[in-house]
Amino acid sequence: MEKADRETEPKLNGLVEAALFVENLARACDFYEQVLGLTKIQLSNTGCVFRVADQRYLLLVAREVAQNPNETPYGVVPACAVPQHNDRGPGHIAFGIWRFR
Fold it and tell me: Which of 22, 61, 80, 94 could pair with 28 in a Cys bridge, judged by C-beta atoms 3.0 to 4.6 Å apart?
């Protein structure tokens, strides 16, 4: 790769969020909140969101709910744990990225 290409390629700015599928949402939420001391910022029957650090999040998603599309105020989240994958979806991870200009 030439130097000019390396100067314009995206640079990672850390991990923003990661999602885990869980079998028992209530139990998993209790563990991350009570044992690890994470701050729960949102809870629903679909999942739970924890703040890990400034602008860094852990999402717990109920595996049974992840098998179906989920309507939210911001749009539809497609099913992510599908039967052909033995109910184990691809998961989710999001990186913060910034780019040289």
Answer: 22
**CA pair distance 61, 50, nearest whole angstrom:** 12
Nearest CA-CA partner of 81 in 71, 70, 72:
70
Q: What is the pTM of this model?
A: 0.69
**pLDDT tens per residue, range 40-94:** 999 988 889 999 988 889 989 888 877 778 777 778 877 776 555 555 555 677 7
DSSP assignment letter at 49: E
What domains can you pick out in the chain, each with its CATH number? 3-99 (3.30.720.120)
